[in-house]
Amino acid sequence: MKIAIYPGTFDPITFGHIDIIGRAATLFDEVIVAISQNSEKKSLFSDAERIALISESVKKWQNVSIDQFEGLLVDYAAIQKANAIIRGLRALSDFEFEFKMALMNRALKDEITTLFLMPHAKFTHVSSSLVREVASLKGDVSSLVPNHVELAIKTKFNIE
Ligand code: COA
């Protein structure tokens, strides 16, 4: 069994994340989308809300599951018997942070490989914080997130 972990904050999940999940689902027997709390970020959605939003977004892939973890990613990956960590690279600006993280994770657990996938070019500019900001200012995010996510953001911000 080839198992991959796709970790992230997913606050909220976007079409860019979903693109990566779809690609990973064709490469691995099982993909676990794992929600982590990034200590430097304050989340709009709770863990339970993010799990529900991701579940709805990935239901067409039978081999994709959702989980939440605390502590080191490599320890969580080892518990799940995962061979790989998937990360998305949208632009060159992602590279430095991702490169450092991949090398740190390798230093911590050499047997778990980080694999970088590129989402479709049309999602290069998408990030969760930009989606939150645009939606909170009543901008149209329908091309960036699925309908149910757009609805959930609007509800959070009390937007009709
Ligand atoms: N499409 C759209 N947006 C994407 C994307 C894609 N394919 N891939 C990443 N992003 C965006 C996210 O929306 C997010 O945007 P935001 O900053 O505006 O919210 C940003 O890129 C990066 O977020 P994410 O991929 O969720 O990573 P992160 O930096 O929030 O979290 C973890 C990274 C969870 C993997 C990392 O913190 C971790 O491993 N934590 C566990 C503790 C640990 O092991 N630490 C040691 C690490 S070496």
Task: Give short descriptive properties of this protein.
single chain, 160 residues, alpha/beta, five-stranded parallel sheet, 6 helices, 5 strands, binds coenzyme A
Please explain how this structure is put together:
This protein starts with a strand and ends with a helix. The protein is globular, with a radius of gyration of 15 Å. The protein is built from six helices and five strands; from the N terminus they run E-H-E-H-E-H-E-H-E-H-H. It has 160 residues and is α/β, with parallel strands linked by helices. The model has no long low-confidence stretch (mean pLDDT 95). 34% of the residues are buried. The structure holds coenzyme A. Coenzyme A binds next to strand 1, helix 1, helix 4 and helix 5.
